[in-house]
């Protein structure tokens, strides 16, 4: 086996959700607010800026969630965290991309992209939110489980964003 190289395939996936009423113009400010992920994603406890200029490429956010597991009557609390660097943000195209630069959850490389677009030509009611990613396989996880997490997370985020926007109309 000496001299042979083993290449691991990258995982690539995308989740999409459509909102019937809020427009892309209304939803985009919630998505582009890179340090407020915890407001929209129920599994995130905290999200804050640790480096760079807010809203500018190069900015780094710290994202964390606390999990509690039980084993043999003992509860164990663990904080799962990641540092994520904003790579690109385009308010005209309503998209941003970021990479995980450090974490304790087994990610070796991860680049995510979020896009908000109208679902009607007139730009009025309705929009689509897409969350796509490319990453190395994550140890201890199957691709299907990771993609399911992304899909569920996006659905939860979209519902919270829609509820917040509709409550202010």
TrEMBL record:
Gene Ontology MF term list: protein phosphatase inhibitor activity
Protein name, per record: Lachrymatory factor synthase
Source organism (scientific name): Lithocarpus litseifolius
Lineage: Eukaryota, Viridiplantae, Streptophyta, Embryophyta, Tracheophyta
